[in-house]
Amino acid sequence: MPPLRLSRDRLPLLALLAASAALFTWQLSNSGLANAYYSAAVQAGAQSWKAMFFGSLDASNALTVDKPPLSLWPMILMTKLFGLSPWSVLLPQALEGVMAVALLYGCVHRTTRRAWPAVLAGVLFALTPVTVLMFRYNNPDALLTTLLLFSAYSTLRACESRRPTAWLVLAGSMIGLGFLTKMLAALLVLPALALSYLIFAQAPLMKRFAQVLAGALATLFAGGWWVAVVELWPASSRPWIGGSPVNSVLQLALGYNGVARITGSNQSNPENSGLRATNIARIGRTNLLTEVTWFVPAALILAGLAWYLSQYHPARRNIRAALLLWFIWIGVTATTFAAMAGIFHSYYTVVLAPAFAALVGIGAWLVAEYQWLKAVRYTGGLALALTSALAVSILLLTGRHDWAVAALVCTLGIVALVILHLGQRNPVAAYAAIAAVLVAPALSCLATISAPHTGANPMAGAGRGARTSQIEVWTNGFLQGETGGYRPVSSTVLERLRVADQHYRWSAGALGARSASAYQLSLGRPVLAIGGYKGDDPVPTLDEFIQLTESHQLHWFIPGGTLGASGRQIQDWVISNFTPIAVDGVRLYEVG
């Protein structure tokens, strides 16, 4: 048997992946069960295959979470194997992060045919703070980013392949699976994929259109099969589609998770519909600065320079296909984020991180290839200077007055600029430039790892973690701590709620998904989330709730939480007809 040998390209890749795995798993249990809303759905799916398929919030299948279930499935399978814990919930996202780094490496390596630019892109991506945050968290954005990178890799392969249809079908399938992860958010990269192939592929133009159509059909099939099953399934025997006022996945995709995100209208509650200001002002917020903007100057300047230099390179077509793909990726996605007047969280920008990193990797490679040109050295120096200046500015603007770090960044940048100006082919310049660019975001990543993160809106960077009182700590089989600002779950309350609860379909009903999730995770039994995530879902109605109590399907009612129209009616009815039981400062109503 011949000895196993690692090629010069594979060894850096393995080192990159090992470092990424360490970064994404170090102190992974810091955040407990992180976003309790999705963790409750994971718990439910581990108890019921039906809940797993639909993405139900509880194992008795009252209603689903407000996203498709694909991102939940890896966590559910891990939980079925190893039980519910922070590691079983968060490790799938860490593994998806390692895969995402590998895919980005593959994208850049196919463009440059060199290992070091691909490694550089992978390092920049992995050390973007929002990347570290989301690949250690249980929101859908981790899987979404990985699937979109898979589609980008497949498209770049198609551009240079003599048989591209299979690659385009694979790319389209990944977009379809992205739709089953976060709905229309997956479609933002479609213009980048389609245009880069249509313009730079080798096939005749009409054949390119036919091949892109094949990819589009793959997207429709991969993303539509689950939607079709749910829409055709009798509504009376499946859970309510959370976030949809009319119990429809299609309406959820086009409404709450679609048009409403742009217009700001609340499609789940028409009474609260209306237009708000666009999101342009949010793009400059300090938490966005700390999360994703670190490499923007280098990415944009080097992308422009790379486009110009590629005209002299033998691989001009492949280089420009990649540059166009990543640039349109950024343009469409960032413009959409800026135009959003509806719900927006800064962690959405994780999908921009691989594009910025790829442009820097490709641009740095071409700068190295043509560094004998003075204009190239000066432009590369400008990118370095502006990126270093941005890093220092972020440190100061966000209240991180790390003068020693700022001084180090400036010193490293100056050293690199001086060597570049002298025109010497010295590796010290490259090392100093990379260090100047990476020191500040790397420290931000360490701060992100060290701090626990909980709830629906985690943020990366120093000082962005959850308050101590909000930390969900996994202790003795149940959670103790606040979820979304709610009262800590008391062991005394839990013991009272557990009395005879095995005879009921739901142990309790709580107002809103955040409160219900906290109790469900603690009890290990289904808890009815009245009104769904935002309290706006019309489930159950007052008449349905009364029927549940009379048929002894629901045992306890827990007041307080997220009140919608239905929840307010239910709470008023309960208070009027039942006597509260005070347990450790919490009012409980035994309604069944």
Structural notes for this entry:
The protein is globular and about 85 Å long. Helix 2 crosses helix 4. By secondary structure, it is mainly alpha-helical. The termini are far apart. The protein is 59% helix and 5% strand. It has a domain at 475-590. The protein has 23 helices and seven strands.
Break the fold down into its secondary structure elements and pairings.
Blueprint: H1 10-25, H2 36-47, H3 49-54, H4 72-82, H5 86-112, H6 115-126, H7 129-134, H8 141-160, H9 165-182, H10 190-200, H11 205-232, H12 249-263, H13 286-292, H14 296-309, H15 316-339, H16 353-369, H17 374-397, H18 403-422, H19 427-450, E1 473-475, E2 478-480, H20 491-497, E3 506-511, H21 513-523, E4 527-530, H22 542-550, E5 554-561, H23 565-577, E6 581-583, E7 586-590
Approximately what portion of the residues adopt beta-strand conformation?
Answer: 5-15%
Instruction: Give the averaged pLDDT, no decimals.
Output: 88
Mass-distribution shape:
globular
Bin the helical content: 55-70%
Main structural class: mainly alpha
Encode the helix/strand succession as letters: HHHHHHHHHHHHHHHHHHHEEHEHEHEHEE
Cα-atom radius of gyration: 26 Å
Summed up, the helix count is 23
Domain Putative mannosyltransferase YkcA/B-like C-terminal: 496-577
Protein name: Glycosyltransferase family 39 protein
Subcellular location: Cell membrane
Main location: membrane
Which terms summarize this structure?
mainly alpha; globular; single chain; 592 residues; 5-stranded mixed sheet
